Amino acid sequence: MSRLFFRTLREVPADAESASHRLLLRAGLVHQLAAGIFDFLPLGQRVKAKIEAIMREEMDAIGGQEVSLPLVHPAELWQRSGRWYQIGDDMARFTDRNGRAYCLAMTHEEAMAELVQQVVRSYRQLPLLLYQIQTKFRDEPRPRGGLIRVREFTMKDAYSFDRDQAGLDAFYPRIYQAYFNIFRRCGLDVMAVESDTGMMGGSMAHEFMALTPVGEDTLLLCDACGYRANRQIARFRKPEPPQASPLPREEVHTPGVDTIAGLARYLGIPEAETAKAIFLVAEMQEDGSGEPREQFVFAVVRGDMELNETKLANAVGARRLRPATHQEIRAIGAEPGYGSPVGVDRSQALVVVDDLVARSPNLVAGANRPDYHFRHVNFDRDYQAHVVTDIVAAAEGHGCIRCGSPLRAARGIEVGNIFKLGTRYSEAMGATYLDEEGNARPLVMGSYGIGSGRLLASIIEQNHDEYGIIWPITVAPYQVALVSLFTGRTPQVVEAADRFYEALIGAGVEVLYDDRDERAGVKFNDADLLGIPIRLTVGARGLAEGLVELKLRRNGETRPVAVEELVPAVQEAIQAERARIEATLTQEVLDIQPGR
C-alpha cells in the first residue's frame, strides 16, 4: 500500500448524501471530476473490472458474443428511428467541422441494429446475442448519489435478434435468469419488477431493483401473492363505487375553496366523492416533420387518488408533460382551482378520464368559474372523454390487482433492465433476414442493460457498516488485507510479513499488503474502510507464539492461525466466502403479472 495510488478521506463533501457516495470518496475508489463525471482510481477500477468480468461470463454462458460500438453516432441513425426528435435535452448533440450532426450515445439500439443489418442475411444466422461493455453519456440535469445517477457511465448492454416474437419470448427468461446470476454473484440482493418501457418502446420490460432507503424508485409489492411493479406502471384493485342513479346537477357556492381537501371539508363529504382536475400540456410524438407539437391535456381522477403521469403520458403518447399555465387553462374554458370537464372546449383539450371516475356516480366537480362547484356530476351525461383508462398511482395499502391483499411500498435502485423491443429498430434500420421461403422479414429484438458504476454503488449500499465497506469476496478489490504491525525494534515482523505476502501471491491469492509506516489504528481503520473480506494481522506478539490473526470483515469473526498453516487457512476462508455467494444462485421463474 505504500505505493498504491489512493488516499483515504476523513471528511467528504456535504453533498455526498448516500452511504455509497461517501464511502466511494472516503475509501479512495473514485474522484469526482465534475457533476456526474468520475475518475476510477486503482481500487475502484479493480472492483469495476471484476463486476464486468462476471457480466461477460454470464453473457457468454447464454451464447453472447462481445463487440464494441462507438460512443459517437451520426444523427441519421437516431433520426431514422425517430428518437432524435423524441429525446430532449438528455441527449448530447454536436456538429463536426463540416456541419454534420452527431450525438453521444445514451444507448445503442440503432447502432446495433445497423451493424446486424450489414451482417445477417439468413434465418440460419439466428438467433443472435451481441453485447458490449461501453461508455455512454446522458446529460442528466440533476446528477446525484455518487455513481447512482451520473452523466458519463459504463454499461453492459446486450441485444438479441430473433426470427419472430416466439423466439424472443423463449429467450427472455434466459436473460432474466442470467441477470439474477450476475447480481447474486456480485453479492447483491435484487428483485425483478415490471416496469414502463419508456423511450425504449416495446411490449414488455422488467427492472432489477436493489432495495435500499436511498432508492430513487418506488415499488409496490404484495407479500401475499408476489405481485411486484414499479409505481410508474403498478395497477391495483380499485374500490367499487356505490350504485346510484344520476341526480340532477346543481351548482353550489364554495367561496375560496380551491383544493380537494378544502372542498371535502366545506361540503362535509369524503374526498372519494369528488373529481379532481389536472391541467397539463403534453409534448407529443412528432409527425414526419420532426417538429414537436404541444397538446393541452385535461386529466380527471377521483379526489382521493393521485395522478400517475407515466400512465397518462403513455395513454396519450406524450414525450413529456408540463403543468399548464393559468392562461392556457382559461383558454379551453376551464378555471384554475375550480376546473372540471363540464363545458370545456374538447376541440382544444384532450380529455383523459380515469376509469374509476367514469364508473363513479354523482361526484362533486368544479363549475369552471371562481368560487363555484357542481354537485352530482356524471360521466357521459355531463361530459365525455377522448380516453378512459387507468391513470392513477398505486400506493401503499391499495388492494393488489391480483389477489386483493394490501400492497406494500418500498424504495429501490434500478441496477438493470430488460426489454422486449420487437421490430421498432430493425424496421427503422432495415435489419431483415430471409426466411426459408426467401421472404424478407424484420428481426425481432430485445435489449438488456446493466450499469457497471451503478451496480458497484448499489453493492456498497447493501454491504457497509459504520466503519466502511464490506465487499463480497467475488468483487472485492483484493481478497486479503495483510497488515504488518512493525516498528523500528521489530524487523522480524517485516521479514515475516514479506514472506507471507510472497507465499500468498504464489498461491494465487489477491493480497493488499499494508507496509506503510503508520500506527496500528490507522491501518486497522483503513482496512475496515476499504472493506477487504479477510484481514491478516502480523505482529510481534503473535509471531512469538507462531500465530497470525485472521479476521473476517463481514462479521468481525477472528481466529489465530498457525504460521505454517497460513496459506491453506486463507484459501479455506476464501472458499467459504465464495460458497456463501454461490449458495444464493437459485433458479428464477419469470412471473408475468396480470393487468398490463
List the helices and strands and how they pair.
Blueprint: H1 19-26, E1 30-34, E2 37-40, H2 42-61, E3 65-66, E4 72-74, H3 75-81, H4 83-86, E5 93-95, E6 101-104, H5 109-119, E7 128-137, E8 152-162, H6 165-185, E9 191-194, E10 204-211, E11 217-221, E12 228-230, E13 236-237, E14 250-253, H7 260-267, E15 275-284, E16 293-302, H8 309-316, E17 318-323, H9 326-331, E18 350-354, H10 355-359, E19 363-366, E20 372-377, E21 387-389, E22 399-400, E23 408-422, H11 424-429, E24 432-434, E25 440-442, E26 444-451, H12 452-462, E27 464-465, E28 468-469, E29 480-485, H13 491-506, E30 511-514, H14 520-530, E31 534-539, H15 540-544, E32 547-552, E33 558-562, H16 566-582
Parallel strand pairs: 3-7, 16-18, 18-21, 29-30, 29-31
Antiparallel strand pairs: 1-2, 4-6, 5-6, 7-8, 8-26, 9-10, 10-23, 11-12, 11-23, 13-22, 14-20, 15-16, 15-17, 19-20, 23-26, 24-25, 27-28, 31-32, 32-33
Helix pairs in contact: 1-12, 2-6, 2-12
Keywords: Aminoacyl-tRNA synthetase, ATP-binding, Cytoplasm, Ligase, Nucleotide-binding, Protein biosynthesis
Pfam family, one: tRNA-synt_2b
Catalytic activity: tRNA(Pro) + L-proline + ATP = L-prolyl-tRNA(Pro) + AMP + diphosphate
